[in-house]
Amino acid sequence: MVTLKQLARELNVSISTVSKALNNSEEIGEETVRRVKELAELYNYKPNKVALSLKQNKTKTIGVIIPNILNHFLAKVLFGIEREATKLGYNIITCISNESLDKEKESLQILANGSVDGFILSVAEETQIKNEVDHFKKTISQGLPIVMFDRVAHDVMCDKVIVDDFDATYNATKGLLNEGRKRIAFISNIDQISVGKLRERGYAKAILENHDMEPITLIIKKKDDHQKKIKSFLKKNKDIDGVIAADSSSGIIAINTAVNQGKKVPKDISVIGYASRADSNHTLPRLTTIRQHAKVIGANAAQMLVHRLQNMHLNEDVKTKIVKTSLVKTKSILKENNP
Amino acid sequence: MVTLKQLARELNVSISTVSKALNNSEEIGEETVRRVKELAELYNYKPNKVALSLKQNKTKTIGVIIPNILNHFLAKVLFGIEREATKLGYNIITCISNESLDKEKESLQILANGSVDGFILSVAEETQIKNEVDHFKKTISQGLPIVMFDRVAHDVMCDKVIVDDFDATYNATKGLLNEGRKRIAFISNIDQISVGKLRERGYAKAILENHDMEPITLIIKKKDDHQKKIKSFLKKNKDIDGVIAADSSSGIIAINTAVNQGKKVPKDISVIGYASRADSNHTLPRLTTIRQHAKVIGANAAQMLVHRLQNMHLNEDVKTKIVKTSLVKTKSILKENNP
DNA sequence: GTGAAAGCGCTAACAA
DNA sequence: TTGTTAGCGCTTTCAC
């Protein structure tokens, strides 16, 4: 890499002259500016990022800590973050906590040594179970702002981007009730994390508003055979005529299994799941999905963080942004499910 | 963040003494070392990464350029890279090229300003179509090594990690032939990229070895309705009794569609697809999959890059590592498909 | 209009 | 054993 020093020597001017010329300082003579820029162009000079970071005490880099990159929703949020961050002139350093509290702590630690200006993260499962938040608070008190998305720690004062999980699930369940469904089940593979709980509560509320109904819930555990569990669940509960799935796999497997067991979808059973467009392709009929607009969530998180970084001195109050889901209806539910 | 300067002042010693003490230099007295370490611990001192990078002219950071993070295989490779890199003491800066040549060039450019020590990347689709490689060569000549994985540019001299796509597809197709299948189709949603072509060629070779057979190929385009295309393809070609799918969605949709059209899997039709474990859960029966061991690929790429970074002076020859796929057989093919 | 010098945080050669 | 100094690449204040 060419440095200012090298350019300066070659041009027989001082380093600071070169620096100023390249930064369009008024101080420098027109002719000099031209010469400097020409040579810089020729050598493809690019200011050294590390030196700039050191000097200006900011890296223009965001630390992103994702619990699980193989989760399609989280990958999509990452996509949104990356795109927005790039647009705003920031790079992202990605760490994967793998749902582990220790890895999360460690990532925070390692990047807080000057590598990044702030963090965007979704809380690891283990962290949520143990309800630990000190590492977040410590990071923030060190002057590194955090934006949390989706799985957030409510006890931590920081900017947040969340989904209206409770309302969305409540409304989806209401929709199935309005179709006339009487035995609606809730299937979840994400019972341990905050959003999973919110979804379950939204479902339960809608069900319990009918005095003659009770929630029917199937929780899948990590170690379970996902397909087998749902198969035997549907076999045992033959009267189930509706399913709300808290995660994409459960929704897909529910439809495919129901069809396989000879049920007609949506005649005999309606299915709605949290999933993305690509997922809905994996069933026939396509799965009706609650879309979380992951990319928007990511973009919002990036915007909030950058905004805070650029207004650190103002000490603004923390904000929570709610990104509304939308229900994309397909043939996995009855046509007129609104009265 | 606490700095050496602050510690030094508080302890009434010089900065270098503090530095040496923390780095366990033999030079410093036992007692001094103790005092320094104590205070450093108290203040939770961490050496400033940026300053270190500047000083040592290396960042211990790897630039990773992924064409598409929503592709499960690529996400999984990223996972493998991250884990191995972390293990080796490296961070990763992630850029997403979004299959665009310009974004790929730009990412390379931006990170080559001192932000990273080297790159791990998979070539963008547009880059492969236009067959551009200058930006890679330029980066390498600037002293930043590249490791390419999966989609590689053969004209670029650099380390590579690839999959035995050709052989794996050839063998899978042979397997179906050995079952006695006569009308085996190849379905691909990734016809434009190098690995897609390799897979098609592997399939074609196996088919053409039978003098009475012809390849039957369905290429899905980006703008197509994936489900519809496969549906009408299978409807039009009712005699198809085997499918090799080049990508995971095609495999899943093929099974679900076949079942939907009243075919028995695997009695009437066998299906094999490039897909991961999670995907195979999305069909009944489960999809027989060619596993690419994405995490292993990622880990290998990270190892190769770090090895090269740590042996830059040796100027070793470039290597290409082939990671073998494995075929995971399930009930989507006939039990005895080997003669 | 140009340059010298300080300083961001750190390491290391050299001096004391 | 400890301290001084220079230098990594850059910006910026202050002299000239």
Automatic annotation (TrEMBL), chains A, B:
Annotated keywords: DNA-binding, Transcription, Transcription regulation
Transmembrane segments: none
Pfam families documented for this protein: LacI, Peripla_BP_1
SMART domains, per database record: HTH_LACI
Ranges for domain HTH lacI-type: 2-56
InterPro entries for the chain: HTH_LacI, Lambda_DNA-bd_dom_sf, Peripla_BP/Lac1_sug-bd_dom, Peripla_BP_I
Lineage top rank: taxon: Bacteria
Molecular function as annotated in GO: DNA-binding transcription factor activity; transcription cis-regulatory region binding
Coiled coil: none
Protein name in the entry: LacI family transcriptional regulator
Protein's organism: Seonamhaeicola algicola
